[in-house]
Each structure stands twice: as C-alpha cells, then as structure tokens.
Amino acid sequence: MLRHASIAAAAAAAKLAEDTIVLDVGEILGITDLFVITSGRNVRQVRTVVEEVEKALKERTGLKPIGVEGLTDASWVLLDYGPFVVHVFLEETREHYALDRLWADAPRLDWESAVPTTVP
Questions:
Q1: How confident is the model at residue 73 (pLDDT cuts 50, 70, 90)?
Q2: Candidates 3.40.50.300, 3.40.50.360, 3.30.460.10, 3.30.360.10; correct CATH number of 2-110?
Q3: Which of 11, 39, 52, 117 is deepest in the core (most CB within 10 A)?
Q4: What residues have CB less than 8 Å from 70, skipping those under 6 apart?
Q5: Does residue 111 contact residue 22 with C-beta atoms inside 8 Å?
Q6: What was the pLDDT predicted at 117?
Q7: Closest CA to 109 of 6, 38, 18
Q8: The 3-state secondary structure of 76-110, one letter per residue
C-alpha cells in the first residue's frame, strides 16, 4: 500500500501541495493502514490536488476512491481508498484539526523514495 499512498503523495506534490506526509496508522487505528496528509493554500488548490490524486491513482493503479467527503466546501477533503486514506486540507483547517499531532505516535514513512518511476 505504500506504493499507492506514495503515488497519491507525489500527485499532491506535483500540484504544489504543502507539507505532504504519509503516516503508518495501521497499528494505532485498525480501520486503515496509511494516512496521506497534505495541504493547499486555498479552496481552488485543494480541489486541484484532489483531482490530481484521483487521476494519478486511477491511471497508474486502476484504483478509484470508495468514498469522497468534504468536496463541497473543500476545507478538508477525505479520499477513502480502503487500506489508505488521503486527507487534503486548507492550511488553516489542517492547523485546527492537527492530525499530524493527533497521530504523532504513528511512524512517518518516506513516500518520496517509494514512488514508482514507471507505470505498471
């Protein structure tokens, strides 16, 4: 799953999302294995990041989200892929909910070295 989460993180980074991290929450949470957390500076960028993540995962892995929540106001969009969940926040919303601190015990994974260089 790190491969898929890394594709999502790289897609977010390609659209200039900020502070993109991947957390291994499987041992702590139990309902999913990985969180991808990233932020956009405004609603338009959040939506662009969400679109790019969906596009990259569909093209490179065939995956589509099981569910998408929060797209209407786009201050916190959640893309549920089952084994991993992508959280795309507005900067101020991310600061408010502080998932990074909430899940501080979860190991941070090196997503950049796990991004595949070729399309399967």
A1: very high
A2: 3.30.460.10
A3: 11
A4: 76, 77, 78
A5: yes
A6: 60
A7: 6
A8: EEEEECCCEEEEEEEHHHHHHHCHHHHCCCCCEEC
What single DSSP character describes residue 35? E
| Chain centroid offset of residue 65 CA | 12
How many angstroms separate the CA atoms of 86 and 88, rounded? 6
Length of the chain: 120
Question: Which residue type occupies 27?
Answer: E
Give the pLDDT of residue 1: 84
Is residue 80 within 8 A of residue 66, CB to CB? The reply is yes
